[in-house]
């Protein structure tokens, strides 16, 4: 019976090597392992690539048909994810004898397309534009100190998506929530620090933005409290509001939803803090009404990785202006005709002055406000700011007064009510 020669295991071509216990050869012969010919290159159709909860790990979902025909792992490192199996690696002691030449670099990672969810704003890779500014706690007082540390209170603002099923179809506010978070991030990452604007401390990956914790009450709570505010306190609030808003406007950005509820008064100190810039728009944008086709906010997220370093947050070309809180929203916004968002902020500021002067909340019927009509008794009880408030509440086409820093009032000015 002839002796077997060069019997080689060929069941797994990726790990082909000669097994000494299965080979019979003369002592003078040196046998080389037989290498199976690599299989022809196959293309894998990827259905979805998503980032898992484990940082830098991807989940690759293939089409069902391909999934049956290809025994590929669903998980791989973000640095070695192989969407197209270009390599047929051989491992073992005789690997250097294989003539198959590998490529110089591993297969590229799949392109990361963020999911259509607001949390994707803060997903990997988190843009450096959302990181904390230099010395973010410079204007904050620590709540406690240790031997080698300082402790600060803060709040985390995260997206809250609501999904409803209507007539068998799922509806979500994810797109609008994303628009608001992007608008707020633009304000916080564009403006220089200001005492009348809530401090931005950075972002938490896959969570949200971090803001300073403000101890105090809303301006609404302060205005309706009794005893009523003193004259000097009203003027101080007027000046702080005007200072913060003009600082915001100097960067060609509006607030968009200025109201008694979006202004915080800290305690102690009675410092005004502007909050909630989710409806902020740029003066350089082209405005669309809320009922128009919404601008897709996720389109900018797909391109954020290619944003030049000198332009860390590009201004969108089109933005929608949404009505704010009643009755502070400007009539032109309610009609969908706003062409100057900063001038609309002036209307909101004028309505706040009326509430501040009267020490009570006011209301205007929305169908009257759309027509630039004001109640006849709106200014009843106004002593300090009536004339100025009337100028801020004019029609936008009839010389409405703009917000200017030089309009700040000196405390105790005898002619203040005439300005």
UniProtKB/TrEMBL annotation:
What are the recorded GO MF terms, alphabetically?
A: ATP binding; protein serine/threonine kinase activity
Query: By its UniProt entry, which InterPro entries does this protein fall under?
Result: Kinase-like_dom_sf, Prot_kinase_dom, Ser/Thr_Kinases-Pseudokinases
Domain Protein kinase: where? 137-416
Recorded protein name is: Protein kinase domain-containing protein
